[in-house]
Write a structure and sequence with these properties.
This protein is an all-alpha fold and 183 residues long. The protein folds into two domains: 136 residues, no CATH class; 46 residues. It is 84% helix and 0% strand. The chain is globular and about 60 Å long.
Length: 183
């Protein structure tokens, strides 16, 4: 029961202070699940982020559910998913009911801008961790080439990021099989 309460509080905190969806919330989930609580390690977190980003739906909910499931099974997954979304549900309801007529769109946009800068810094921090983790398995040249290829496919060709991730995973899987390595 104590672990369920810790899951609830941890992901409630992430849900309260997270802004911008899954990728932006990933550093906060990492802080809670890896650094602070030690529920999972960096490798497991990277796997969870990769899987969550390749699936349809809200990746912050998918990431929290995966961590919760790892800690306390199905009930842990449900508790983590509920608690990370609870603050957004409450805030959205309040905004829609009370503030819609009281606050102008310009004020809401003005509040959003500094928050986006913080989210960008958090995403950079997590990207740095991913880069360092990638260097353990891949050469710098491969990391740079995959990053550039992914950027070009997503930004210039408009290919959905999940398709790029699936293609990269398929490439690695096929190349490992062709080399005779066990997957």
């Amino acid at each position: 029961m104590k672990e369920l309460l810790e899951l609830f509080i941890s992901f409630l905190r992430v849900g309260m202070f997270g802004y911008g969806g899954g990728s932006a919330v990933a550093p906060l989930i990492h802080k809670e699940a890896v650094e602070k609580r030690g529920w999972i390690n960096d490798d497991e977190f990277i796997d969870i982020v990769a899987i969550a980003n390749s699936l349809p739906g809200a990746s912050m909910v998918e990431m929290s559910t995966a961590v919760g499931y790892k800690i306390k099974g199905i009930l842990g997954g449900i508790v983590a998913a509920f608690s990370i979304t609870l603050p957004s549900m409450i805030a959205f309801t309040i905004v829609m009911v009370f503030l819609n007529d009281l606050v102008s769109e310009e004020v809401l946009n003005a509040v959003t801008v500094p928050v986006l800068a913080v989210v960008a810094a958090l995403m950079f921090s997590l990207s740095k961790k991913f880069f360092i983790q990638s260097k353990k398995e891949l050469s710098l040249v491969v990391i740079v080439l995959v990053s550039i290829a992914s950027f070009l496919l997503i930004y210039f060709l408009g290919i959905h990021p999940s398709l790029v991730i699936i293609a990269m995973v398929a490439y690695v899987f096929i190349s490992q099989v062709l080399r005779g390595k066990k997957i």
